[in-house]
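Summary for the steering committee. One of the milestones for this cycle was to obtain a three-dimensional model of the protein with glycine bound, which we needed before selecting residues for the alanine scan. The sequence and ligand used are listed below.
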Amino acid sequence: MSVHFAGSRSRDRPRVAIIGAGVSGLGIGWRLGAAGCTVDLFERNFAGGGASWAAAGMLAAGVEAEPGEESLFRLNRMAQQLWPEFRTELEAESRRDIGYRDDGTLVVASTRDDLEQLRHVTAFQTGIGVELEWLTAAEARRREPYLKSGLAGAVFSPHDHQVDNRRLAMALKDAALARGCRLHETRNVDAVDLEAGRLRGIVVNGERHRADIVINAAGAWANRIDGVPELCRPPVRPVKGQMAALRMDRNHPIATRVIWGPNTYLAPKADGRLLVGATVEERGFDDDLTAGGIMAVIEAAWRVLPGIEELPVDELWAGFRPTSRDDAPVLGTSRLDGLLLATGHHRNGILLAPVTANLLAELVLTGRTDPAIDAFGLDRFHHVSHAGAAS
Ligand code: GLY
């Protein structure tokens, strides 16, 4: 996307404060910095250290599409189409390789029961336009020779690729800094700063920071900022995921593309790490690793790729998906003039990074909400009661 100033003189170079320096906040900051805005990013921890760090980097609009999520699929598909150009631009600006791999994704069924489920899900997915190719077990093993023998069948998704999410976050950070953004790490945003009901900026560690526009990109913490009027709070909660990274021989990896199986996914990275995930748990901000969680993650992966048994464990971690009430992102304006939202990405924050960056930047610069994100505004959660009051 090329970003132009289109606003009035007073809107030309707004001072923007972004709460949260994950891939969403960093991406928006990068675009706005490039357009000449004054951008301050506030991060409670370290840039890219939250869900962006914990993710697996799958760009899986197709195989993750679920019934009832047709409009989310359209947004995800749009993001997928933006990815090649976004990657080229970002790698050029940051001078970093972000580990983008366009090998597609393989979904395998271990048993006849799994196969029937896969048929059911893929019927929905192909019905909404996902391109999928059925493979026999032998064909699947020709592509991934270390898959277990005796699979019931498999499906190949040629457009579901992956990126190294940690490298992505670091590249976005470098690109944003190169475009003049100021990054304030370990700075907790206490509250929005309101005067007579109008947004004046934010309060950070007890000090006021003036801004014309505040973007809430605080991920799973997005509804914990004081002073935000009730109707402007995104209904976002943390959904915990425990994951493991195993270490393959990078010259002889036992998996070469993303593989999904029953209750598991495996995402091999170019550096030889094999990311294996993930649990989906409602435990608030409890980040404990549990024996049961890690056992479930490893066992499900082992059932499709038994060779992982011999691999060293490189890392175990837990992260928090920022999940909204309907699992779709919350993007766009709020009822408080100047307060914008870019959160609630649930399982799709990495995939949606180009859409979030481009369309939120466009909203800041032009005041226009792109039709692609119209359906993902905060107001979808506020129904009008019989008395006429929004709830
Ligand atoms: N997108 C994968 C996950 O949320 O576990």
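Key point for the committee: Confidence is low (pLDDT under 50) at residues 1-10.
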